[in-house]
């Protein structure tokens, strides 16, 4: 990479662990519909849009619903999910992530959010980190879900930065594919066995600093 100008962060699973709240809300919906939804099933929902998540859930339960019924079920799940996230505060920032974001800012790297969630702004607010972001692209702004690159290309476009000068941090396979399709560098956050296509995988930000990022990008 010639010059690192922009770092784009996925939200769920990278900045905070909202997957557990998605899981609680989906599980409650599944129980109401008469079947069980396991943590393993929940893995399939990471990085996936709300509607697609519902379709996967219904598939697990072997149920078919009309479009109208699906809209109502998705809304119900979201009402429960929002109840959970409204209880969040800065203690739910994943270890080291705040220091890392601040270090990027100090080094004049712009920050963007690239999340599929329509609740992303609420979560950033609860975590107290909204002002750190130069651009926020969420599920309300994009028409195509990851692995489509739109959620990342839009962030770079809004800030007038070429994709090759951007790096994406992602915990979901669909998000890694989206970043690669956008022509950006991508760092997986999580398990290297799962995030096979990422150029580099880290376990989190607890011991990851700006200098480590520069080192990785130098090798690309
Ligand atoms: C993604 C999550 O960030 O957002 C998915 O990884 C979730 O699990 C998706 O389904 C949509 O979230 P929301 O808040 O719009 O229902
Ligand atoms: Mg994620």
Name the beta content range: 5-15%
Main beta sheet, described?
6 strands, parallel
- Our Rg estimate from Cα atoms comes to 17 Å
Helices and strands, in N-to-C order?
EHHHHHEHEHEHEEH
CATH architecture descriptor text of the largest domain: 3-Layer(aba) Sandwich
According to CATH, what is the topology of the largest domain? Answer: Rossmann fold
Number of helical stretches of at least 4 residues: 9
Distance between the termini: 7 Å
Please tell me the total number of domains.
2
How do the strands line up in the largest sheet? 3-2-1-4-5-6
**What ligands can be seen in this structure?**
6-O-phosphono-beta-D-glucopyranose, magnesium ion
Number of strands: 6
* Range of helix content: 40-55%
**3D shape:** globular
- List the quaternary state of the chains: single chain
Overall pLDDT score:
96
Which CATH class of the largest domain is shown?
Answer: Alpha Beta
Ranges with pLDDT <50 over ≥5 residues? none
């Amino acid at each position: 990479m010639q010059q690192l100008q922009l770092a784009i962060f996925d939200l769920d699973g990278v900045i905070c662990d909202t997957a557990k709240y998605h899981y609680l809300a989906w599980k409650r919906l599944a129980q109401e519909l008469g079947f069980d939804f396991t943590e393993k099933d929940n893995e399939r929902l990471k990085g996936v849009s709300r509607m697609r998540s519902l379709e996967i859930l219904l598939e697990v339960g072997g149920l078919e619903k009309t479009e109208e019924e699906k809209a109502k079920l998705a809304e119900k799940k979201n009402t429960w999910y929002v109840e959970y996230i409204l209880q969040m505060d800065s203690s739910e920032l994943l270890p080291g992530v705040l220091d890392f974001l601040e270090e990027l800012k100090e080094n004049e790297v712009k920050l963007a959010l690239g999340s599929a969630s329509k609740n992303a702004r609420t979560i950033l607010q609860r975590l107290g980190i909204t002002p750190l972001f130069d651009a926020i692209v969420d599920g309300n702004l994009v028409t195509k879900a990851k692995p489509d690159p739109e959620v990342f290309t839009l962030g770079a476009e809004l800030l007038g930065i070429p994709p090759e000068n951007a790096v994406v941090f992602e915990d979901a396979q669909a998000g890694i594919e989206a970043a690669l399709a956008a022509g950006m560098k991508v760092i997986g956050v999580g398990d290297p066995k799962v995030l096979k296509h990422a150029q580099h995988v880290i376990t989190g930000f607890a011991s990851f600093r700006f200098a480590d990022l520069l080192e990785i990008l130098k090798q690309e």
